[in-house]
Protein 1
Amino acid sequence: MRGVVMHAPGDVRVERREDPQIIEPTDAIIRLSASCICGSDLWPYRGVEKLDGPSPMGHEYVGVVEQVGDQVKNVKVGDFVVGSFVISDNTCEICQAGFQSKCVHAEFVAATIGTQAEKARIPHADGTLVATPGQPDPELIPSLLAASDVLGTGWFAAVAAEAGPGKTVAVVGDGAVGLMAILAAKQLGAERIIAMSRHADRQALARFYGATDIVEERGDDGVAKIKELTGGLGAHSVVEAVGTQEAFMQAVGATRGGGHLGYVGVNYGVTIPGFDLFLAGIHTLGGPAPVRRFLPDLIQLIWDRKIDPGKVFDLELPLDQAAEGYQAMHERRATKVLFTV
Amino acid sequence: MRGVVMHAPGDVRVERREDPQIIEPTDAIIRLSASCICGSDLWPYRGVEKLDGPSPMGHEYVGVVEQVGDQVKNVKVGDFVVGSFVISDNTCEICQAGFQSKCVHAEFVAATIGTQAEKARIPHADGTLVATPGQPDPELIPSLLAASDVLGTGWFAAVAAEAGPGKTVAVVGDGAVGLMAILAAKQLGAERIIAMSRHADRQALARFYGATDIVEERGDDGVAKIKELTGGLGAHSVVEAVGTQEAFMQAVGATRGGGHLGYVGVNYGVTIPGFDLFLAGIHTLGGPAPVRRFLPDLIQLIWDRKIDPGKVFDLELPLDQAAEGYQAMHERRATKVLFTV
């Protein structure tokens, strides 16, 4: 099969990779319908995260089940499925508590599988994949693909920040995850949603997804502006969807005492001054999102056309043009790139 | 009046200080019945926290109301009262959400008032002080004093860690606050309470307050031991009651994915590696405790002799011997020192 392999920063190639095989009786093989590039794929592309030799890329995926192991019961050959970017058994104590990304069998799809490809082996298929109610209309595929990570992650961030009725939510970061957090905050009933963004095109998308206010200031000025908009108190709920030092501390500062910060930006190299966090007196919850918890509901919302997360994809390319897709996201010519397979 | 003043690290004196006066109509003047030394008072005593000139000391207090401003309604002259170590109006939006330590009128008693003294002016008396049901038996005074900070803080830590029925709670730190967190976890119905302690006397007190297990290991070894005791998962609820780098990261490591960390150790100089916290996937809540939220319930529990937090005081001295009290806590000859006034 063909699949994307990163050889070095900036060096992405579509190559022949071995066809995946069933190894464990809990595995499934899926033929991918679409895949995409995640913001976190840019870390190795930019040389921020070190590569250990050539790496298969991709961890977001939708597709059709082609083969299942003997013990797989919840999905069958021919099902159209959406999977989380973290493998989970969905039965252990941690999964049952809703934290499937910390499952005792957790494994990052990014680390070994690589779904920017024609096919993929998905371990713990019953606990990782969710079948859609039927074969989807092609127009729904981008949205279903978004559920696999970017929507699921933004949704988790909004839930972690306890966005809900009567709440003012501030979202730091106007990338795809930040935009999905806005969509989620709106669905969760937030009263006011402040997008922190300085790009006109993303501001427009933020408003489309439910932002009621835009703040262009960053850092201490951004915090001051959020305070000004919230009677001096700060937002009830803040989402951090960037992963830099400045963004993280901006998010801490924007949260009111006793408020909730949900952080999902992959934060390599960020160091949090403990005493600043202590004095802030806030709840925090973050990390790789337990997307599997939300998948059944998110699929239904998409199926019923109540949400349209697929709009975050602003560039669609055939898999063979993967290198151009990475370049476009790296140069910020695209917010998020979808690959047709 | 007499009051404790710290002039420099290691230099604590009992001096004449001016008698406090009503300044605002929301003030009360109380005559202190007892006061004590907090672990955080040792920071400037040890030179870790810088002093800006001679500083009145003390922020934990119980006593009798001697005078009230015109607008004070909830406490009256003659009432025996317990107050929080943070001033709060108890009416603002933040207070109403239960985060009185982040009140819009918040002020640290430690910073300006100094309750290791004969009298103190308490601003926002209605929102800060709680009257006991009557004049307490002398034997209850240590416990009521504990409610002012050390019990209230340990209680908050246990609540922040979501200690409760069915939960395994690990407590990092066997100082007075850690011991009070154990008491709180027990009252909140925790199934299993693991005290991380290597001092025999404190282990005994930990067991008295409800610890079911003792772990002597620290750092990575301590984390490994907690995992071993919890089927490899980590504790549902972890309390950090020390404030050092090692203790904080030990607490992060001991918390299961999706679990809750409550941190109340004053953590000057701690830097939290953001990516480690991200990968841990845990809830955190910490900071100066909103003691005022818990005071009415804690006073009632003490009044009804259902809890005995006063046992954390293992040295009682007259105020005039304050210097000896500081020395004893600094040298760890005492866990917590009570001053009779």
Protein 2
Amino acid sequence: MSTATASPLTDPLAGDGSAETGLGAALSTALDGAHHRRRVAGRAAFPADGMLRDPALGLAEARVWTLRRLGEFVAAGFGQSIVPVERATPETQLQSLIDFETITYGDQSVAIKSGVQHGLFGGAIAGLGTAAQHERFLTDALQLRILGCFAMTERGHGSDVASLETTISYDADAGEFVVHSPHESSAKTYIGNAAADGHLATVFGQLIVDGVNQGVHCILVPLRDADGATLPGVTIGDNGHKGGLLGVDNGWIRFDHVRVPRDMLLDRFGSVRADGSYSSTIDNPNRRFFSMLGALVRGRICIGGGAAIAARVALSIATRYGERRTQFRHPHSDEESPLLDYLAHQRKLLPAIARAYALGFAQNELIDDYGRVSSDAAHDPRDQRALETLAAGLKALNTEFANATIQTCREACGGAGYMSENRLTQLRADTDVFATFEGDNTVLLQLVAKGVLTDYRDVWGGLDRLGLVQASARLVGGAVIERTGAGLLAERLVATARRKGDATAFYDRGWHAWMFEERERHSVDSLARRLRAADRDSFEQVNAMQD
Amino acid sequence: MSTATASPLTDPLAGDGSAETGLGAALSTALDGAHHRRRVAGRAAFPADGMLRDPALGLAEARVWTLRRLGEFVAAGFGQSIVPVERATPETQLQSLIDFETITYGDQSVAIKSGVQHGLFGGAIAGLGTAAQHERFLTDALQLRILGCFAMTERGHGSDVASLETTISYDADAGEFVVHSPHESSAKTYIGNAAADGHLATVFGQLIVDGVNQGVHCILVPLRDADGATLPGVTIGDNGHKGGLLGVDNGWIRFDHVRVPRDMLLDRFGSVRADGSYSSTIDNPNRRFFSMLGALVRGRICIGGGAAIAARVALSIATRYGERRTQFRHPHSDEESPLLDYLAHQRKLLPAIARAYALGFAQNELIDDYGRVSSDAAHDPRDQRALETLAAGLKALNTEFANATIQTCREACGGAGYMSENRLTQLRADTDVFATFEGDNTVLLQLVAKGVLTDYRDVWGGLDRLGLVQASARLVGGAVIERTGAGLLAERLVATARRKGDATAFYDRGWHAWMFEERERHSVDSLARRLRAADRDSFEQVNAMQD
Ligand SMILES: Cc1cc2nc3c(=O)[nH]c(=O)nc-3n(C[C@H](O)[C@H](O)[C@H](O)COP(=O)(O)OP(=O)(O)OC[C@H]3O[C@@H](n4cnc5c(N)ncnc54)[C@H](O)[C@@H]3O)c2cc1C
Ligand SMILES: Cc1cc2nc3c(=O)[nH]c(=O)nc-3n(C[C@H](O)[C@H](O)[C@H](O)COP(=O)(O)OP(=O)(O)OC[C@H]3O[C@@H](n4cnc5c(N)ncnc54)[C@H](O)[C@@H]3O)c2cc1C
């Protein structure tokens, strides 16, 4: 199954540890950021080398292997930092993210299986449940005594979570909820842990109380009995072979009037009393919905961080290979040139390495923000929004970067890059879907735009403040408004460049940061103006902004 | 293994045939080009639907399935148009390319297995052998009575074929050749048909006659006996699991002083007489080497065409899905919006569709050129060079486009795009390596640059004709030369735009073509100037042009 002699790619990797001296060690410490020690401890406790799955394992074997590894991960003490809001500290919150990052150095199926079990299933209980529910379910979930699903996506609705079709209807006479999938399109699908292992699911659906739809809520629904047989009213199917993550058992679930007791509704944001009356601490249904989703932001942060790590692993493989692999004789010597001597090769890898560091540092800021905001019950709602915007944006950027970069690395290793034992194709296949789950990238970037515009409105007290610019701009239409904006930016740039000497400006990090901020300000300015100029109620015109 | 209910992606595909009316049919005919009938007949004789491999098949099963399908392909009369130069007509040459394109609509492992067996193994016999060898081996190869390998790449040398280490030494006393892999790095690797099925190989190595190295030649070497056991001196290993193309049994081969009779050397371009004297119709060893490689250009054309088809299949899947899949309610109606109503979604797919047509039309020109040039024994060497340059360039562009586009399509289908039954991840994994084999894309683009510069020198009678421009340019260095070039182009553009009214220019295809040519001329101009300005013997400076 494997080539008998060492592949040229595995040699450089074998030397991994020893190479980390001097500059390498310093860079690695810088990338670990404030949490260097925590990360070193994690990597030592769970070395990635023991975490590599034989890529030739079939679907069934890969699932068994993955579940066993997940058990070892938990036995080593990982994945236990998912705690309810009231017990959260910056430490617990950070640790939960770093645990996830630690395993993504190894097999991504194990990481995603933990993401489903600890982050999503455990996270929904911790983030959406109340004390009694934490008591009853959380430790069992984290310890893998109950394997569970996070059943949000339906066949008909993925990005548009608000339109889920599953109903959670309260039957006041019986004191029970009835969970139901009215149509074929209402079946939950792509749900991790559903096809084989899950016994309990956090199911999202429209909460109907006394005929009134209170919007999307989440309820715990048992799926299988102790022997693994599906319970009455529950139909489960296997999503089968996927483009990657073969170790995760994704499946679909359909509910036919499944009854669960009243205390199974995760009711931190909204609850139903025995008498059938609904109550919530958040009156506005829209705000309630977004608060629920906000409580789940950790998953998105993890996926972005995991993608960043996959990209760095790939870059490390390709760069070490590029240093050692030679091809074509140097014209004036008998030696062959290492690939990295070719500028075309440098151009493939070096800018990506620089970008990987930049994204890594940005991710470190994000996880610090998360630790701070999510452990502070009294946090400013604006901090929460900023956190969500940053998480959405960095998830999209990191995953897009990872997919492009791993592919570049694969090609930079030539034929060796295509051999599964050299990891690149596996990384590529597994990371692919990171662009889609925990929020499709396109939809996330729209979220970022909305978040940024909301801030803008807050600062400027409504877009109407732009009255003056608008008044003249409207006369000549969108394109000219844009040009005016660009003109303003150019003027500001020229003014600044004049104030600073060229030489200082080039090496001044503050100046670079300022220029970036300026660019952001300019983009938001012009987007806001275009939206204002357009009839904001018109789907066609808002849609036009996507172009 | 598969979802019990129809996936949203398979519905649109089921309606494939009926949708091809009106504009669709016209576009499809246009894309088929001059060979519409031939292609329709091919697709009818070998419908892609019956060609889809269960993605969950393991390595061993996938190989068995692929070999069986290859047998059906041959039984249906395909793959039989690989003929020796002397029997080639434009018809045979085109048919051999169209046969390959036909199967790439289905499973890529079958296509590549045929590519190895018919195109490479059969093609090497047809293109590098002489009449007696054609007689003895070609029909058996095409009919799958002998399964064979094309063993060029070695562990140490892939792109740099001229530096292969395998030796083919003539032993005049025995009247035999001795084929040997002197080092571990000399082992052939990634060789299709080697791990399981191949019985005979066309092996490339340095031909040593009477102590003199005559450069790379190709010899037939038996690998296995009738029972499939490797022959004495032959060691074969399995490359194992790959990033895709699981149905192709790639492996490595090492030769330990393996003896083969004198008549096994494929000696169209160079032969060894019984007395041990070497002779060739081409005196210059460098020209001889490139003539041999030129005789193998078909493979490169096939891979570009196969990638183009994979991209079109993906675009067809994603576009049909985008028309039917809805997500998010339209603000002013109760309907949800089809994905293709979002400009962001259009921007992902529509430019790629346009580009797919453009590349398809270019590929049609290329295959016509191939039919004409390769069937004309008396063709102008410049036509051959133009063909090779075009083949290299289009192979690189098509495969790069395919990889980027299939990924875009995968993401445009959201979670459904990641399910293997919907084909996109499989297409992506299989097509990935098209960027690497039959010539690594980066190296091919360097070939194109060299080809274009050689033409330039031919036309201008040596770069020295540029004396005047050079004289002034040298004073101020590379960057300024560039700017001057750009200035010239800009002037020409302005002059042309003035001559033509805006409105006419926009819709005038001749004008667009002229602009493209102008841009090409400008690029070559400046590259030639930069090379001339540099010390052309300096590796560092030529390397700098890659940046
Ligand atoms: C391997 C895997 C594991 C998963 N695990 C889970 C899980 O455990 N639990 C769970 O609940 N879900 C899970 N999911 C589902 C995942 O969260 C969804 O696939 C994701 O949210 C996208 O939804 P969708 O597939 O319906 O795509 P859609 O929402 O239909 O999107 C399809 C395409 O349309 C585009 N699009 C959509 N809306 C717009 C718009 N307004 N403007 C422009 N473009 C738009 C998107 O960019 C995308 O390209 C998983 C999915 C996969 C593939
Ligand atoms: C699935 C598969 C099937 C194959 N089947 C066959 C087969 O049947 N028969 C056969 O003979 N071979 C086969 N090959 C081998 C294939 O042809 C080689 O992999 C290919 O030629 C590239 O060679 P390499 O892998 O040695 O990469 P290298 O040549 O080492 O290239 C590695 C990287 O270095 C870069 N590079 C190299 N030189 C330069 C330069 N001068 N300037 C800038 N960059 C450079 C390349 O762009 C590439 O990114 C197969 C390969 C695969 C993966």
